[in-house]
Amino acid sequence: MSTDPGDRLPGLVAEFLRRHDPAGDRLGFLRARFDAGLAWVHYPVGSGGLAAPRHLQPLVDDEFARVGAPDNRPRRNGIGLGMVAPTLLRHGTTAQRDRLLRPLWTGEDIWCQLFSEPDAGSDLAGLTTRAVRDGGDWVVNGQKVWTSLAHRARWGILLARTATDVGKHQGITCFVCDMTAPGVQVRPLRQLTGEAEFNEVFLTDVRLPDDLRLGGVGEGWRVARTTLMNERVAIGGAPAPREGGLIGLVARTWRDRPELRTAGRHDELVRLWVRAEAARLAALRLRQQLATGEPGPEGSAVKLAFAELAQRISGFEVELLGEAGLRHDDWTMRRPAETDLLTRTATHRYLRARGNSIEGGSSEILRNIIAERVLGLPVEPRSDR
Amino acid sequence: MTNLRYDDTEEALRANLRAMLATHSPWTAVLARVAGTEEPYDRDLWDRLTGELGLGALAVPAELGGAGAGFREVAVVLEELGRAVAPVPYLGSVLATRALLSCDDPDLLGQLATENRGIALAVPFSAAPGVPVHPVAVWDGSALYGTVTTVADALAADLLLVPATDGLYVAQARAPGVAVAPVVSLDATRPLCDIVFAHAPARRIAGPDATARALTDALTAGAALLASEQVGVAQWCLDTTVGYLRERRQFGRPVGSFQALKHRLADVWVEITEARAVARYAADCLATGDPDTELAAALAQAHCAAVAVHAAQECVQLHGGIGFTWEHPAHLYLKRAKSAALAFGSADRHRSTVARLVDLPAPTPSVSG
């Protein structure tokens, strides 16, 4: 038998499909797939994987997709799959991984991220939510904001301050927050698009047992960095075919409606097309580089480029449409499960894209990260370290 | 699947070449050559690159005596040569090699590979792929007559590939009847020249159809591979500027700690990150004969040319006064970048090609009343 996992995997998938009916119970199928190590093949055995090379995952996904097997609809649990899972893998205890990873992967448990606070957005380490030890529990008080999916989430990954007499990056601890615990209150936060993708979360005397602490006391900043680097990769680095994103919508409009074409718009459209393709290739190259390693600050480049491009393309699209660009579809407050960019109007895309350069690290903060961590330029003098 | 990374062989080639260039072609030497009365090309360096590293034969198939490497490796070489603004006629020889590969002339290719003979394709440096190249000469039955302007890397060539009305000819560059005259070039590290053929002896190596194909292939390759050189130019500009801003102090602190400057350099870095992906894509398409090669080449010049120019302009600006002097090498990179932006057609022309290939039609001109 071959020891190359790339040779073994197709056989394992085929064997799995012989024993589990893709048309049967969806959840049962997904749980079995996790237990067989075919969820994330690069994760350790017992955590949904086979300790195989990371780049083999698409081979497995493609094979399940080919036979029409149920998937875990990753976009509905994007935070869990994209950011929390790698963080649990790296910083969680065996007991935490055993308890949390499978329902996360199957989508039974939706996750949210309780990082941002009203007074600590870009300056995340300035957070003031407190966690105080009380016997075997921690008691949490504070407020979080910009929390997508909090209204559906079973769990949240939470940063709280556990010490105030040390530097602001040292006094932070990471927890898994039970969103059903007494004292957790979630309120929708309506944004300028009219919908409420996000929430405010109020934490009042929330008791979390110590076994929900993720990483060491005071180690929260290190844990958070794993999450944040994965966030940028998740936001900017999704694999897309050519014209798979917003540029595809505009290109289709251009092809279908010759009456909208002008020379100036043509020039701008082609410029945007070229930039979109360059950004797509950069994301693809990043993924090829990441296939064996962890995300580095390069994810910041892809995220930054993606945000600016989305804003330029959506702005162009509204103008291209002329009179139709004056009409919006609906201002009713909605609670979308995922960012709904491709099925709404151009006006919605334009407005939603304003958030792209703010969420997940503002473009200004990302430029600082690139300048300091990639290029090694000196930090600006500051008084809060 | 398209491979946008550098493999181990390519990294090894890069390391060898970079070390050789650091020793034998530091920027001080390049600057001295540009400023002085020496000849424009560094013959010693070129001999080393072709002799010791076999660069001249990199893309020539192994069965003809070449290295049989391929265009991914050629792209890495260009990236390093761009990083050093090395005054060697490599790009021109790559163009000619690509043309000869299309013409299927094994004898000439074999000669190139084994004898390290310099060769250039006699077309204007600004000739773009996809646009028919006018024949630059006429064959009267016994010799070539005609003129071609702003040819890259022909000054160092022994042989010239000349597109004439009835096919492609190879002529001795130093034969009677061939006048190769240097022009004062924007980029002195890649000097251009005008060539006049007046009763020049030559040998026909391809008919009209094969010539058209060879020219298109050569110019497409040029556009695709120049992107890697542009990445190298841009990367040097960024690295050098970062190094300077880390050291230079004003207002009591390193200039590089000012956010306004950091953000500008971060933007350049993002642009280079994208340009590198685009350049690798073009090189990989070219190397594998991907059907996307024409698009990848157009994309490369529609994107990477401006990235190199921007990086070089920022390099001059962020160095402040010293960046505006002749003694600092920044201007060598600015001139290389701006001149390369016109090579193989402007970005605007390449955007037209992109538009055609991906079906984004220009508006139909309206009938004026």
UniProtKB/TrEMBL annotation, chain A:
Organism: Plantactinospora soyae
Keywords, ordered alphabetically: FAD, Flavoprotein, Oxidoreductase
GO cellular component: plasma membrane
Cofactor(s) named in the record: FAD
Family the entry assigns: Belongs to the acyl-CoA dehydrogenase family.
Acyl-CoA oxidase/dehydrogenase middle domain segment(s): 112-206
Acyl-CoA dehydrogenase/oxidase C-terminal domain span: 218-375
Protein name, entry field: Alkylation response protein AidB-like acyl-CoA dehydrogenase
The keyword Transcription belongs to this UniProt entry's keyword annotation: no
InterPro entries: Acyl-CoA_Oxase/DH_mid-dom, Acyl-CoA_Oxase/DH_mid-dom_sf, AcylCo_DH-like_C, AcylCo_DH/oxidase_C, AcylCoA_DH/ox_N_sf, AcylCoA_DH/oxidase_NM_dom_sf, Mycobact_Acyl-CoA_DH
Keyword Transcription: no
Single GO term (MF): flavin adenine dinucleotide binding
UniProtKB/TrEMBL annotation, chain B:
Pfam families assigned: Acyl-CoA_dh_1 (PF00441), Acyl-CoA_dh_N (PF02771)
Gene3D superfamilies: Acyl-CoA dehydrogenase/oxidase, N-terminal domain (1.10.540.10), Butyryl-CoA Dehydrogenase, subunit A, domain 3 (1.20.140.10)
Keyword list, A-Z: FAD, Flavoprotein, Oxidoreductase
Location of the Acyl-CoA dehydrogenase/oxidase N-terminal domain: 8-91
Alphabetized SUPFAM superfamilies for the sequence: Acyl-CoA dehydrogenase C-terminal domain-like (SSF47203), Acyl-CoA dehydrogenase NM domain-like (SSF56645)
Domain Acyl-CoA dehydrogenase/oxidase C-terminal, chain residue ranges per copy: 215-356
Stated name of the protein: Alkylation response protein AidB-like acyl-CoA dehydrogenase
Organism whose genome encodes this protein: Plantactinospora soyae
